[in-house]
Amino acid sequence: MSKIFAFSIRKDEEPYLKEWAAAHPDVEVDYTDQLLTPDTAALAKGADGVVVYQQLDYTPETLQALADQGITKMSLRNVGVDNIDMAKAKELGFEITNVPVYSPNAIAEHAVIQTARVLRQAKRMDEKMAHGDLRWAPTIGREVRDQTVGVIGTGHIGRVFMQIMEGFGAKVITYDVRKKPELEEKGYYVDSLDDLYKQADVVSLHIPATKSNYHMIDAEVIAKMKDDAVLVNVSRGPLVDTAAVAKALDDGKLFGFVMDTYEDEVGVFNEDWTDKDFPDPLLKDLIDRPNVLVTPHTAFYTTHAVRNMVVKAFDNNLALVEGQEPDTPVEVG
Ligand SMILES: NC(=O)c1ccc[n+]([C@@H]2O[C@H](COP(=O)([O-])OP(=O)(O)OC[C@H]3O[C@@H](n4cnc5c(N)ncnc54)[C@H](O)[C@@H]3O)[C@@H](O)[C@H]2O)c1
C-alpha cells in the first residue's frame, strides 16, 4: 500500500484531503498542520511521497532530511517553486510537481468585483452608511459598461477577467508579449503598452513578475494613463511602484487602486496586526484611503481553488509514487 504524507495542512484544506483519501482507499494518507523543516521531516517516516505548501524555504537541510528517509517525491499544492533549493533537489534525485493552474476564475472574479466596487465608490458609501449618512451625493458611481478595460497579460487569469468584464458590457483591449491567435483574430490586441495606457479607463495586470518588469507601473507610466484611471494589481507586487501610485492618488490622477499583491507583502500579509504596531506606513496609508481596496493576497482564496490545489497535488504525488507521468511536473535543476 502506498503512503502519502502532507505537511502544513490548514483547517480549510482538511475536508478536501479527506475527500481525496476516501476516494483512494488503497493509499494511506496522513498529515500534519506543521511546516516542513529539517526537524518535522521525520513525521513523514514510512511515506512514499509528500504533499507540501509553505512560504518557508525548502533548504538543502530540509530536502536532505526527507531524502534520508528515502522520500524524494514531492508535490506542491501551489505554483511557485522559487523557494526550493533546486541544486540540492537535483543532487538528491527529487521528483517535484506543482499546481500551476487551480482556478483562474478565483483571481479574475476578485479583480472584477474589486474594480466594480472602486468604480461605484462602494467603500465611501459603506463608510457613510456606517456613520448614518444616507445621502446620495457626491458618491456617484461609474458603470462598468462605460469603461475601456485594458488587460495586460492574456493568460489563464487575464482571459477569464476579459470574459467577465465583457459580461458587464465593458470594452476590452489587451496587450501581451505573446499574442494568442484566437484573441488576435478578434482584434483585442493594441500595438503597444503606450496605446493601452492611452485608451484604458481600467488598467489590470495579469502577468508574472520578472527582473525586467520590476516597477513597470511607475510615475512615468501613470502619467501616460487617462485621468481618473483605475489601476488593478492582483498579480505580483513588484510590478507596481506603490509609492508612485500613492502620489498619483494624492494628485487626483488615479481614480482608484485595487491591490491584492504588494511589493513588501512578505511577513505582513496573512498576519494579525490587531493589537500590534502596524509595520508598514505606506500600506496603512493605502488601506485607509476610501478609493483604494487592499486585500492580503487573497484573490486565490476560494473553496474551489483550495480544493483543486489539494486534489491536484495528491493526484500528482500518487502518479509520482506509482511511477507514472504526473500532470504537471516541475523541472528540477
Ligand atoms: N493574487 C493571487 O492570489 C494570484 C493567484 C494566482 C496567480 N496570480 C498571479 O497572476 C498572474 C497571471 O497568472 P496566469 O495564471 O494568468 O499566468 P499565465 O502564465 O497563464 O499568463 C501570463 C500571460 O502574461 C504574458 N506576459 C508575460 N510577461 C509579460 C509582459 N512583460 N508583458 C505582457 N505580457 C506578458 C504571457 O505571455 C501570458 O500570456 C501571475 O503573476 C500570477 O503570479 C495571483
From TrEMBL:
GO molecular function annotation: D-lactate dehydrogenase (NAD+) activity; NAD binding
InterPro entries: D-isomer_2_OHA_DH_cat_dom (IPR006139), D-isomer_DH_CS (IPR029753), D-isomer_DH_CS1 (IPR029752), D-isomer_DH_NAD-bd (IPR006140), D-LDH-like (IPR058205), NAD(P)-bd_dom_sf (IPR036291)
One Pfam family recorded for the sequence: 2-Hacid_dh_C
Leader sequence segment: none
Keywords recorded for this protein, A-Z: NAD, Oxidoreductase
EC numbers for this chain: 1.1.1.28
PROSITE patterns, per the entry: D_2_HYDROXYACID_DH_1, D_2_HYDROXYACID_DH_2, D_2_HYDROXYACID_DH_3
Domain of life of the organism encoding this protein: Bacteria
D-isomer specific 2-hydroxyacid dehydrogenase catalytic domain boundaries: 8-330
Domain D-isomer specific 2-hydroxyacid dehydrogenase NAD-binding intervals: 117-299
Family (UniProt): Belongs to the D-isomer specific 2-hydroxyacid dehydrogenase family.
Name of protein: D-lactate dehydrogenase
Natural source organism: Limosilactobacillus antri DSM 16041
Gene: ldhA
